[in-house]
Write a structure and sequence with these properties.
171 residues, mainly beta, 0% helix, 73% strand
Length: 171
């Protein structure tokens, strides 16, 4: 009988590593006299992350995010953008059995390259808030799958948001 017992405190804290794929969309202000431009992903955005669970309710995490290249057209003007950066986050988790609800908040240090037809590239770097919510599912004790919605307040882009499907391995 002792072998069949599961330690309920196992895997509540410690390091984890993960990766994810997502979908990113944003809009950008068009040049003077043009409408706002909706930018949709041409590439598959990727995320790599490492974190530490202090307990089952709180974690800290560092994300490397590459939103990939997005493009859009307005008034026959093509615009492309490429955004990537690092984002340290604090994550609050509400465990409900093997399902977890979570919310996260942090800052993203990013680089944005915005290309318009026949104009030089606009490059911008900075830091802005990033936050999100999601739901996770723990499988085989150490594997965690998460679906999350994330908003990035990048100054150069408007309405920048991503949806992620991630997997993490807890050590």
């Amino acid at each position: 009988p002792a072998l069949g017992q599961v330690d309920e405190n196992a895997n509540r804290q410690g390091f984890y590593l993960g990766a994810g794929l997502g979908d990113f969309s944003a809009s950008a202000n068009g040049p003077q006299g043009f409408d706002d431009i909706d930018l949709d992903s041409d590439d598959t955005p990727t995320k790599l992350f490492a974190g530490y669970r202090m307990n089952r309710f709180f974690s800290v995490q560092l994300d490397y995010i590459d939103f990939g290249e997005s493009s859009g057209t307005t008034n026959l003007l093509d615009i492309r953008q490429d955004t990537s950066g690092l984002a340290p986050n604090v994550i609050g988790t509400l465990p409900i059995g093997f399902v977890e609800l979570f919310a996260k908040v942090g800052m993203m240090w990013y680089d944005v390259d915005l290309d318009t037809e026949n104009d030089p590239t606009i490059s911008d770097s900075g830091e802005d808030p990033i936050y999100g919510v999601g739901v996770g599912l723990t499988l085989v004790e150490r594997l965690s799958l998460r679906l999350e919605y994330e908003i990035v307040d990048v100054e150069t882009l408007d309405d920048a948001e991503a949806i992620w499907l991630t997997a993490a391995w807890r050590f």
